[in-house]
Write a structure and sequence with these properties.
Layout lengths: L27 H10 L2 H5 L18 H19 L3 H10 L8 H11 L8 H12 L13 H7 L5 H10 L6 H5 L5 H25 L4 H4 L3 H13 L5 H31 L4 H4 L10 H19 L2 H23 L6 H4 L4 H10 L3 H12 L14
């Protein structure tokens, strides 16, 4: 692998919290990726909401398909910048492991339930999953990932949470939120790949659902620009093929823009190694004109899709499910599996248990415990 000098080189990794002998055929970041793919939390992502709850359609994105798309886009950008593709892939595949059922609605509800007890945030929960909650190995809890993978998973962190994590792990994965430095270039890159992926697939899923119409898309400068370019080359193109071509062109432009803009910035600032790059502010970025267009697209999606009455009705029901599950398990901890019910911190145990649920397992548990179906039309009864 021909890596740039400012890339994250596996030989320079800060290592794992629990020392392990090296793997025969894989470097540390490849090993991290493989552990993530084989984890229970990763498999659960297939039935966790992105925008549309699992029972609303088989072809909408889930947290799993979203994570795979982020990994694909991230690897393409990393290849263009000679950064570490394996580290990018590990971060991308793990970044949503801590997400609750029902997407951000579930997270918001669980945070409200835990507000007086440390709150809940899915980035912190993703780190908690890989550090503690996965129990697959005889010598340690969690997946024992490398420092660089763990740091990249912690995309956001409040000052209060960062100071708490820093006290438990001095100069650890939360240090950058305290001292104002940056994560690895690979982590910066994955953050943008995440944004590229969800903007594109939310447009696609919004149109597929019927909640977004073609004439609405024409009001968004980024989408209209690529529509005009597609129609110029393919004047008879229409329907979903035209939409796919718009999205394909939009994805390609964003990937190439990040590569070109970041390459210029890296050449200008010339970090001598991966650690020097962390002190220079964000180096992986969009150009200013494209960033403005992406911001306008995000505003459009917030206004026309995420706050659409049909979406809001579903998310309101999802919040009720999470709140009522939380109350039920707090009152009756024996309803949870024994390893959760007997923990010393009962409220955090309830939060961990609910956060690990898929959409349909949470809905099924809610029906079992309350006798009510929160979602019109019901859900598939496949297990957690």
């Amino acid at each position: 692998m021909d890596l740039a000098r400012h890339a994250s080189h596996p030989a320079d990794s800060r290592g794992r919290r629990h020392a392990e002998p090296p793997a025969r055929l894989r470097d540390d970041y490849q090993r991290d990726r493989d552990r993530i793919v084989h984890s229970t939390a990763f498999r659960r992502l297939v039935y966790k909401t992105q925008v549309f709850v699992n029972h609303e359609g088989d072809l909408f994105r889930t947290r799993l398909t979203h994570s795979i798309e982020v990994a694909q886009l991230g690897r393409s950008i990393a290849r263009g910048l000679r950064l570490n593709e394996d580290l990018v892939e590990a971060i991308a595949l793990a970044h949503d492991l801590g997400h609750t059922p029902f997407g951000h609605a579930g997270q918001d509800a669980l945070h409200d339930c835990m507000r007086e007890h440390g709150g809940f945030e899915h980035n912190l929960q993703s780190l908690r999953v890989v550090d503690l909650l996965e129990q697959r190995y005889p010598a340690f809890d969690g997946l024992n990932l490398s420092f660089e993978s763990r740091e990249g998973i912690l995309k956001h962190c409040s000052r209060r949470d960062a100071e708490r994590l820093e006290a438990a792990e001095p100069h650890g994965v939360a240090r950058r939120f305290v001292d104002g430095t940056q994560p690895s270039l690979e982590a910066q890159l994955t953050n943008l790949a995440d944004e590229i992926a969800y903007n594109a697939h939310d447009v696609d899923d919004g149109v597929r659902s019927g909640l977004l119409q073609a004439d609405q898309l024409e009001a968004v400068p980024l989408l209209q620009r690529h529509r005009a370019a597609a129609v110029q080359v393919h004047p008879m193109l229409g329907g979903r093929r035209l939409l796919f071509e718009i999205i394909r062109r939009m994805l390609s432009e964003q990937v190439h823009d990040v590569i070109d803009t970041s390459a210029d910035r890296l050449e200008r600032d010339a970090p001598i190694d991966a650690w020097a790059a962390r002190t220079m502010g964000p180096l992986i970025r969009f150009s200013a004109p494209l960033r403005d267009e992406i911001t306008e697209l995000k505003r459009f999606l917030m206004r026309e899709l995420y706050r659409h009455p049909q979406v809001m009705a579903t998310t309101d029901a999802a919040r009720s499910v999470v709140r009522e599950l939380f109350a039920a398990y707090v009152d009756r901890p024996a309803e949870m599996p024994e390893d959760f019910a007997r923990r010393d911190d009962p409220l955090r145990a309830v939060a961990d248990y609910i956060a690990g649920m898929t959409d349909r397992f949470a809905a099924r548990e809610h029906r079992r415990l309350t006798g009510r179906d929160a979602f019109a039309g019901g859900m598939n009864d496949a297990g957690r």
